[in-house]
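pasting for the record
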Amino acid sequence: MANIQYYDVILKPVITEKSMAGMADKKYTFYVHTEANKSQIKEAVEKMFDGVRVASVNTINLDGKNRRRGVVTGKTAKSKKAIVQLTEDSKEIEIFSGL
């Protein structure tokens, strides 16, 4: 396993209708490093956002999609998503507040 620091774990937030609907239940969705595990994701979220306590983390591995340009075929890069459930007494994550 690679030596991943907490600031390398979270790549970017996922902005979709489904992820926005989950924010009402304090569920936030992020794209994360493909080799990060659940405990690393939990640590990264708690360190990056002040006053946030994580209750649970669910992860999803996404395979690359097949793409074609003329005769040449290939695949896009694989990725990983994490759905982070915060505790009831936790603060909201500020980056999502203006959306």
